Each structure stands twice: as structure tokens, then as C-alpha cells.
Amino acid sequence: MPRTPAQALEILLEGNDRFTVGDRLHPHQDADHRAALAPAQHPFAVIFGCSDSRLAAEIIFDRGLGDLFVVRTAGHVIGPEVLGSIEYGVEVLGAPLIAVLGHDSCGAVAATLGAIVDGATPTGFMRDVVERITLSVLAAPDGLTNSDAAGEAHIRYTTDLLVDRSSVIAKRVADGSCAVVGLSYRLAEGSVRVIAGPGIG
Fold it and tell me: Which range of residues forms the domain containing residue 25?
């Protein structure tokens, strides 16, 4: 298992390459590995992704049981429970990488654009999701006219926010034991691009 953020990111991207071309290995999905994991888990990455049903981390990164500690919310919006879960992944489980996983054609981002441009604010707690995405969409140079640019801006915003809001994450990033990277997934192609966290090494 990888011990550095760079090694963890490399394994994720290699797995995504296999998934994209249809040459998956399906690692760590057998009965023996399941039994070996029962006493404890040691994931090599925390994946904080959008809840979109087309964004299943273990599948698109070609990984298996015990590899990834996955936290998901619509539009990968952050709340106390999310931060606590991610902190657990790095502080207690020792994962050297946090990957924020967004994607193109994000419904939560589209709803936010609709609320800003057309005043079509959703009801119920969906409004909270839109409100938490609004700042990042407004910060994008062409975020109000380009939904994919708005989505990528939100990935960068979320990546920065994790370090800004969590002293646990910030400390580990500062000492080099963990890194935060932003990834954008293309739904039609199945490929992942790194769009934030270029200092990882």
C-alpha cells in the first residue's frame, strides 16, 4: 500500500486508466481479502465525492474492499459530519491522500446556476446544498455561463476549504503526511483529471 500522497494518487490514476479502457483488475474483491480485512481497515485514500450514482469510487478507480474511505454528499458540499468523517480517515486510519471527486454535468451545480441566474431556488434541504455551492460558482470567471467551469471551480473551492476548515487536515498537509487533491470525472469518457493540488509530491 502507498505511504505517500504521490504514491496514493498514482495508484488512483492508474486504476482509472484501467477502468477507462476496460482492462480492470478488480483487486481486493475476493473472499480471502474480505476475511483478512475484518479486524481492521487501512485505506490508502479518502475519497470525498459527489453522491451522483454514476460516480462510484471503487469502480471508477478499479479498487476493492479496504482501499478507499468514501464520503459522499450531493455536490460534495461540506458540513460538520463530512469534516469529521474525513478527519477520521486521515487521523485515525492514516490515509495519506484526500481526493475531492467532482464531475461534469453536475446536477447540484446546475441547480445552483438556476438559483443564481433564474431565481429558481429549490425547496427543502436541497436549498442548503445550493447555498453551499453558490460562493464557488460566483468565484468562477465564467461560472454563470459555463456549468462545467462552475463545477471545476467548486472542486477547487472544496479542496481549499477542507484545509481551511480543518486543523487536523491542515496539520497533516503541512507536515507532508497527507495531501488534498481535486479531481474532475468525465461521465461519458470515464476519465479523471487532476485540477487542483498541483503541489503534491
Answer: 5-196
DSSP string, 40-78: ----SEEEEEE--TT--HHHHTT--TTTEEEEEEGGG--
Other Cβ atoms less than 10 A from the Cβ of 20: the count is: 16
The sign of the dihedral angle between the CA atoms of 71, 72, 76, 77 is negative
Query: Considering the domain boundaries, does residue 9 fall inside one?
Result: yes
Burial status of residue 136 (CB atoms within 10 A of its CB: 0-12, 13-18, 19 or more): buried
Count of domains forming the chain: 1
Decide if 201 is inside a domain: no
β-pairing verdict for 192-196 and 45-50: unpaired
Q: What is the pLDDT of residues 2-48, one digit of tens each?
A: 889 999 999 999 999 999 999 988 888 888 778 887 887 899 999 99
User: Rounded CA gap, 36 and 26, in Å?
Assistant: 17
